[in-house]
Amino acid sequence: MSTDIATLRGLAHLARLEFDETREQQMLGDLNNILDFVAQLEGLDTTGVEPLVHLSQEVNVLRPDEAHNTVSHQEGLRNAPRKDSDYFRVPKVLE
């Protein structure tokens, strides 16, 4: 399977890429090499091969997710550049 320069230019347009003429020829060769490799993989007999779901048999051991405050409300506001009683003051975003 090989692609032509028009297909490469269409793909480059979709990907918002620009190539000069030298780079375009190099990319065309690289793309054709990739497609040839994929064609070789398609020809392999994979009957009896189990799908790979996980790369290893290891299982993550995670701690239980427990919500708790590590910083009090007052400590959180202590270093605020601007605050208004119990809230952070921030610049207006919407008009």
From TrEMBL:
It holds the Pfam family GatC. Allows the formation of correctly charged Asn-tRNA(Asn) or Gln-tRNA(Gln) through the transamidation of misacylated Asp-tRNA(Asn) or Glu-tRNA(Gln) in organisms which lack either or both of asparaginyl-tRNA or glutaminyl-tRNA synthetases. The reaction takes place in the presence of glutamine and ATP through an activated phospho-Asp-tRNA(Asn) or phospho-Glu-tRNA(Gln). NCBIfam families: gatC. SUPFAM superfamilies: Glu-tRNAGln amidotransferase C subunit (SSF141000). Belongs to the GatC family. This is Aspartyl/glutamyl-tRNA(Asn/Gln) amidotransferase subunit C. Keywords: ATP-binding, Ligase, Nucleotide-binding, Protein biosynthesis. The gene is gatC. Its EC number is 6.3.5.-. It catalyses: L-aspartyl-tRNA(Asn) + L-glutamine + ATP + H2O = L-asparaginyl-tRNA(Asn) + L-glutamate + ADP + phosphate + 2 H(+); L-glutamyl-tRNA(Gln) + L-glutamine + ATP + H2O = L-glutaminyl-tRNA(Gln) + L-glutamate + ADP + phosphate + H(+). Heterotrimer of A, B and C subunits. It comes from the Bacteria. HAMAP family: GatC.
